[in-house]
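Let us work through a complete example step by step.
Step 1: write down the sequence.
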Amino acid sequence: MSRKPNPRLVKIHRSYNVEEAASVCRVHRGTVRNWIKNGLDTVDGGRPTLILGTVLRAHLEGKRSKRKHKCKPGEIYCVKCRVPKTPFEKCADLRQMTASTYCLVGLCGDCETIIYRGVSLKKFKQSIGDLDVAVPKALEQLVNGDEPSLNCY
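Step 2: predict the structure and record it as tokens.
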């Protein structure tokens, strides 16, 4: 059973009964019945209860968009507080994840949890806003040096 059903699994040109909708969304059929009680439109009031694929997909996408929080420049999403936060004292560290992606790491000022935000190299300046970002300097003599390290065998 999935906590967050994927709307892309729903075929829009198909009708689903409650069992089929629960199966495709990987949720319990009681969950689908709760969605119907809370506003998911059905084809008619008859039995079996049929749900159009377009309606089901739109409902799932609407639920997903309500959960998303857009971070402003200088904000990092705190998973514990469940809202975007400015890091403690507006300080963050920068860690390189891949060649073009980085991760801003800070500390939430309210719950003292470590918070992370992935940023691309293209949008780095826009993402940091007015944060004081500590960029670690690579030890070039170890990475690019011609002489072998003293710690090697």
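Step 3: interpret the result. Residues 76-142 form a domain with the Nucleotidyltransferase; domain 5 fold (CATH 3.30.420).
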